[in-house]
Amino acid sequence: MQIDHVVCAFCGCVCDDLTVTLEDGRVTGVKQACALGRAWLLGHSAEADQPPALIDGQPASLEEAVEVAAQILSQARYPLIYGLSSTYCEAQRQAVALADLLGATIDCCTSVCHGPSGIAMQVVGEPTCTLGEVKNRADLLIYWGSNPAESHPLHFARYAVTPKGLFIPRGRKDRTVVLVDVRPTASARAADIFLQIKPGRDFECLWALRALIRGLDLEESAVADTGLTLAQLQDLAGRMKSCRFGVLFVGQGLTQSRGKQMNTAAAFMLVRDLYAHTKFAVIPMRGHGNVTGIDNVLSWQTGYPFGVNFSRGYPRFNPGEFTAVDVLGRGEADAALIVASDPVATLPRVAARRLAQIPTVALDTHGSETTKVARVVITTAPAGISAEGTIYRMDNVPLRLRKFLPSPYPSDEEVLGRIVERVTQLRARN
Amino acid sequence: MLRIINGEVYDPLNGVNGEVRDVCAADGKIVSEAPDGKVIDAQGMVVMPGGIEFHAHVAGGKVNAGRKMRPEDHREMAIPRTPLTRSGVGHTVPSTFATGYHFAQLGYTTVMEAAGPPLGARHVHEELNDIPILDKGFFVLMGNNYFVLKFIAEGDFARLKDYVAWLLEATGGYAIKIVNPAGVDTWKWGRNVNSLDDPADTFPVTPRQIVVNLARVQQELGLPHTIHVHCNNLGVPGNAQITLQTMQAVGDLPIHVTHAQFNGYGGTGWGDFHSGAPELAAYVNEHKNVTVDMGQVVFGPVTTMTADGPWQYRLYQLSGHKWVNCDVEMETSAGIVPYRFSKRNAVNAVQWAVGLELALLIEDPWRVFLTTDHPNGGPFHAYPDIIKLLLDRDHRAEVLEGVHRGAQKRSSLKDLHREYSLFEIAIITRAGPARALGLRQKGHLGPGADADIAIYSKAADPKEMFARPRYVIKAGEIVAQDGRIVQDKPGRTFYVAPGYDRQIESAIRDDFEKYYTVSFENYPVQFDHYLPHRVAVSCVRE
User: Fold this and answer.
1) What's the predicted TM-score (pTM) here?
2) Are residues B515 and A132 in contact, defined by beta-carbon separation less than 8 angstroms?
């Protein structure tokens, strides 16, 4: 059986024109996907290949696991809910409902990827656009600290570099592509110009560009630390001012290096300044499939995009206080619920270690470093394959993930809904 | 079943003006008699249909970006969780749950989201579904849509009509929204239009052509609500002229000019900035095909957010505050800038006066509605303050004394002595909006209407009275009592399905596949998932 127009939930590109072939209850073919999307989709099957749940490493039923999870969470004094970037919005809504009910802290992968972009937006705003505007109008593309060739493999072909668009009739020929990074990555091959800056000097480069775009005279010595010459910066500033529609894509090279939100704020202000000369946009290259979705769900339900704490009965926001790395690293969280994420593999060691020390509940489609240390593990159906719901592309365009393969496992939404229900009962009793 | 006895009933659609009579409800509807069930003794109280928010930005990508960018706003108002209700935050851009509770606490039971981009329709619905209690719908941005411009440029009215019908169904939307027609299209290259005859960029069609053609489409499709127009040059001195020209352009075709305050200015610059309300009101008074809403300014913090990208950029330049812009492929743009209306600022004082002048100078209350264009002019929870300004001219004069002299010198407000009656308040907050929206089961208390009812204590201070209804009833059940939410339940979503010739899909598919970045098949919203509690409002073709 062949299914068309499949929406891929793997990365922030959320390509929606995949064709998937199913044979004997198994995904056997994937067309139009990148290597990452294909690897993720292939091999999922309708058969049960893992126990529905584990409690203390022993196979258990879903009911038992929900019960233990609800007990753990409702007995905790400062529980943390974390992850949620690789599941769909309906499940994310249940997770926020649970956090509200428990008075928990809830945080998502944003706090360790593009949290600094979110903070920059709160400081200076964000002039942006959807990816179709890039395809239809952009004649100058600048990638800064981002390596889409490896992180978002179809980004160049679907949205940005090669496609022909409404006002870009010749596609690649009508565009200039610039890559700014600390080393020549795989994306350098796609670029017309590669500018290698010194590590940790992003802010200085961006600030120098702002000065040049404002028409200030800079001495060569002022940019000596950046790794670029004044002439290189002047050339780039000139291109930015004279293009018709420019787009600056910012990656984690900018958000997770020295300067963090200062870097992204500088990038956003640079783009804002360019409105004196031309049309420009900035787009953060969001990574995980639906990390943009959890930012949105948290924002509409609580007012804040990540790092939200409900311990006073209403939402409070404070990155550094209510973000997962900090809550775990300081040893504050005394129980955790991890959904569709693998923090033990990705967070700093001190935070990961805390997850092993406290009772942790993990919902995932497969085993991970986190499920290895979790006290309760519940296997759930993969979003966009065996569970349907809403996903937000990196540019906030919402699409519907479909379910095309039956699964022996419940969806994240269902499991979280059952935990909410059980915690509600336990609360009512006390 | 429910029986409300001894109340002073204001039900303008049924001509009931303060008579003491019973109002009964059963199965979510108003009925003529309800022999048993709960009785509310409304002695000394005022009974009105539930309020209808005609134009507010409460759900979707733009609103959410406003929430996301303004943590400082939310600290103004924290709403703790209760065993019945979810927690949330305010103040100008409240979270979804807080939005629903807040409206209900003010006696409002229906809200229309004023502007959603079609590409973001799922997002609009997701948020609408998380706004509890209220019934809702959303207006679909069309005034700068690629296919709308294209079919107008090609002179293909039949396809334009089919496309609009298709788009309304694809988005689960309710009405045609037009924002700065042609201007937003040119904004995608950083420009704007400033007359009704400046062309758009993608296709050489003018604001005049866009407004007139869509007004005809609305009539021919028999959509329940007229075109809903945010005129060109919003916010700019002298813009009352283009507003008048827009109304003139449609001739006798029905048109709603939204947040008219923001489009009701005279003068040639900020130096001679003054009210243009008398001119606009005079035109509205003479032309029964026109309705407007106030877009009243409330002094204090606001979050301005519109699809009018070039205006929001200009406001950023004027204010220097943080600024979000988002251009949406093929369809529209959006901008957000926090702002603060100050009593001591001459321009702000005039803006404040203009909204009130419109309400007081337009003679027919059925054609002017109470809005703040939330959260642009002010937050919706300021409605009780505005009602008081309309009901009480002494209070109004007192407030006018406390604001910048500009409001007295550059508007006619100090000479306006009209006072609204409770009957007229009921018109501009419920009956009028219901009629203008074509929601026949809303805004009145006749048998068959939805049993959405607000009961207020008659207090000496109308602000107090309207800020805290004694009872708010939604679909026959009490949802709020003395300012407390006592029941949390989902509301419904209104949509229209005017029908279209399926040929339109092949007419747009080619360009769609070339220039959008989503598949044609993945574009329409799935009604079962995004409008789980939906009500189709019928279209009547003339």
Assistant:
1) 0.98
2) yes
